Protein 1
Amino acid sequence: MAEHRIDEKPWRVLEFYSGIGGMRYSLMASGVVAEVVEAFEINDVANDVYQHNFKHRPHQGNIQSLTATDLDRYNADAWLLSPPCQPYTRQGLQKHSGDARAYSFLKILELIPHTSKPPQMLFVENVVGFETSDTHMEMIDTLTKLDFVTQEFILSPLQFGVPYSRPRYFCLAKRKPLSFQTQHNNNKLLRSPGSLYGRDDQVEVVECQAEEGSDNLLQSCEPVEKFLESAAQVDGEPRSIGDSENRSKDCDGQEGDSIPGSVNEYLVPESLIERWGDAMDIVYPDSKRCCCFTKSYYRYVKGTGSLLATVQPKIKGKGSCLKEQRLRYFTPREVANFHSFPEDFEFPKQISLRQRYAMLGNSLSVAVVAPLLRYLFGSSPS
Ligand SMILES: C[S@@+](CC[C@H](N)C(=O)[O-])C[C@H]1O[C@@H](n2cnc3c(N)ncnc32)[C@H](O)[C@@H]1O
């Protein structure tokens, strides 16, 4: 557990790029006594979802236009940020700080020295690849000049028992005189959660080798079936206003927008299986791993997330007839389960299926972020 402050006053937290609130759910799950004093998000649909679940509407607008005076008003102890990842993704142009979508985060870094009371703690989440970018260099440079100590991680839900591969980069920063519990990891990039639980480096090396694919690691994960809705629940997904009855089924694998009214509408059309079967990642209820769901899941089938075989073939995989396996998309609720969102998380009825998948694809794993936040806020032995 994170230690409470002696005065029991909650930490005052600012949440930047709040989306549908994955960071806030992680903070709640971490057990840290904290209050989100404001959240910032440009996308009003995401703000609808956030408000629906937290009864608090984030400040809507471009983070780039915030000033040091604006931020001073909140008198926050910690800033949690999950800035756009497109400038750093391997599939993208990798323009890093040259990409306009990186500007708002660079602006925030610029503002820190101009605030009258800089935050004591910072938490940044991004895609793997961020750690080699010039934005990362800029961030570490700024934090070092301001007397922050950092510990960086690349971690995936697979390392926390969730059968879901979504490795992400995390930077944890504390301003002196605050310090981390495991100080020998200062200024290191770690690929195992060992130090979050006070385990030594040797264990970390083993776990690091185990990441992404080792049998040991996968065996410690729960099976995919634990994350599934029952057929009745899948059937009960709400239909949204203005959604078309049928998805358009383009030959390039792109699909249109809708909200399914029955389980059949999650089934992958045969035309897509014929055309894209070889590129599909297919998993079974007893599988111990599925692929990262991106914001294009359900619109495209290639490289956007796994599909579930609802009929178990005699021989698993592509050797057996895919059409007989009744492939279906995971529902948004199931994707939220893989992100370890709480059961009471829900989308307002008017949010379309495409929007649900897009916002979930942008979000983060509570199973990974909660222990990182607990570690960040925990106080070091003096
Ligand atoms: C990687 S997602 C973070 C998602 C969030 N952590 C969650 O759990 O849903 C980035 C978010 O930043 C928002 N965003 C991007 N640029 C922004 C800007 N300049 N100002 C405010 N929000 C921005 C996007 O709309 C998106 O929701």
Protein 2
Amino acid sequence: MSEIVIAIDGPAGSGKSSVSKQAARRLGYAYLDTGAAYRALAWDLLDRGVDTDDAEAVTGALAGFDYSISIDPDDYWVRVGDVDVTEAIREPRVSGVVSQVARVPEVRSTVTALFHRIIAEAPNDGIIVEGRDITTVVAPDAQTRILLTAAEEVRMARRSAELTGESTARVAEQLQKRDRADSAVVDFMTAADGVTTVDSTDIGFDETIDRVIGVIRGDAA
Ligand SMILES: Nc1ncnc2c1ncn2[C@@H]1O[C@H](COP(=O)(O)OP(=O)(O)OP(=O)(O)O)[C@@H](O)[C@H]1O
Ligand SMILES: Nc1ccn([C@@H]2O[C@H](COP(=O)(O)O)[C@@H](O)[C@H]2O)c(=O)n1
């Protein structure tokens, strides 16, 4: 069981997954991507033909959601049943509906219970858990709580550099739309009491990891 829990929240494209994964590698910790559970559920609902706008139908489909995720930062995968959905859950069709699914209270309580089980069973000394409500709901008592952020235009530019098949305007529109919808459910734009902000707007990837590890080790932010 992990003695140390590091909670990291932030808006879309702020670097939560890439920075958390790399920091976990360096510290020998496990890494839990909580957004993957919401994405995998959205993928599963689309696959089963469930209307993702219908909260009752989404709640009804939760019992059949057979989800597993690797918490090894060197061997990351996500599965629904026997299907490896690691890549598929990043597709725009999933990103486009995930916020609708994540706003359903029964979804949030079910996946939060799942996260608590994964955290409790992690074999490493520590685990880095990233998402939107980790510092406030999933692990408010975590030893270290960080809000990882960056200016919206910088996040858009970084995301559109990754998604070569999509126009910059479309990527920007989707990122803004998702942040707006997600912000209506949880506040990940402002740091809660006791949460340290790391702003990567003007710093590169490696320096961001150094800053995050510095906060975890108790250096000044
Ligand atoms: N400090 C940084 N400097 C440069 N690039 C960065 C920095 N931090 C993250 N990136 C890049 O920004 C992109 C988005 O990062 P990442 O996917 O980790 O964000 P995220 O917060 O997990 O996004 P989402 O919530 O949408 O899944 C990646 O290409 C990543 O390599
Ligand atoms: N703690 C969380 C994490 C994620 N979500 C929802 O999932 C979507 C995908 O998350 P990514 O981190 O992969 O971008 C996100 O847009 C939220 O709708 C959440 O609600 N809580």
